[in-house]
TrEMBL record:
Pfam families: YhhN
Bilayer topology: Multi-pass membrane protein
InterPro entries: TMEM86B-like
Main location: membrane
Record-given protein name: Lysoplasmalogenase
């Protein structure tokens, strides 16, 4: 390889390293926004929540982007941002639009997880035992909550729940962080559903919804980024 041909590679590497300088500030900004949002919910300060919540996913998406994360991860997080914004409005249309935005994010995650391959080049397989457990939990939950949901929301909630459960199960192919993130996402949305069904709830219910949701998105992002870093480390270095 000639010296002239090698320059673009070095330039791209320098650009990537320069972008990564912003990774820590973006992650710290995300964690700060999360802390402010959660504190606002505990204190009952709705204005704080209205300001802090829309900042969360753009900051996390920015962190994923400068870390060299796959485009689908960034898009999934931005669909999460769309869902966050829609759910700030308290009406059925906003709820459906928010659920739709989150559903598109789950499709991105599922596509991303489906691309993962094991060391032999085959597609990584999520645990069958985990799949059975998730299916049982989903079935029991839907049976219990069905009659308490508003009639117009039953089918959309059921369809969304199937997609979310598939994402949570499939996240296990990327390791413990992503698997925990998928499970927490399922828990967070289950807490929302119980609120819609007017079941008894924990004190400060919005705090627990946001805590599990924030942790879920962060763990999913870290799981994807970690898998990407491991794949790059395992790839043979290019020789001139």
């Amino acid at each position: 390889m000639s010296a002239t041909a090698s320059r673009p590679g070095r330039s791209e590497g320098a650009t990537a390293r320069g972008a990564e300088r912003f990774a820590r500030p973006l992650l710290l900004a995300f964690l700060l926004a999360a802390a402010v949002d959660l504190a606002g919910l505990l204190a009952g300060l709705d204005t704080v929540h209205l300001v802090a919540k829309p900042l969360l996913m753009p900051l996390l998406a920015g962190y994923a982007a400068v870390r060299g994360g796959p485009r689908l991860l960034v898009v999934a997080l931005l669909f999460g941002w769309g869902g966050d914004v829609f759910l700030l409005a308290d009406n059925d249309l906003a709820f459906l639009l928010g659920m739709g935005s989150f559903a598109l994010g789950h499709v991105c995650y599922l596509t991303l997880f489906g691309r993962d391959r094991d060391r032999d080049g085959d597609r990584a397989r999520a645990s069958l035992v985990t799949a059975i457990a998730y299916v049982l939990v989903l079935a029991v939950f839907l049976v219990l909550i069905w009659s308490d949901l508003p009639a117009e929301l039953r089918v959309p909630v059921a369809g969304y729940s199937v997609l979310l459960t598939a994402m949570a199960w499939r996240a296990g192919v990327l390791g413990r962080y992503a698997a925990a993130g998928g499970a927490l996402f399922l828990l967070s949305d289950a807490l929302i559903a119980t609120g819609i069904a007017e079941w008894p709830r924990l004190p400060a219910p919005d705090f627990w919804v946001m805590l599990t949701y924030i942790a879920a998105q962060l763990l999913l992002a870290l799981g994807v980024l970690g898998a990407g870093a491991r794949a790059r480390a395992a790839s043979p270095a290019l020789t001139p």
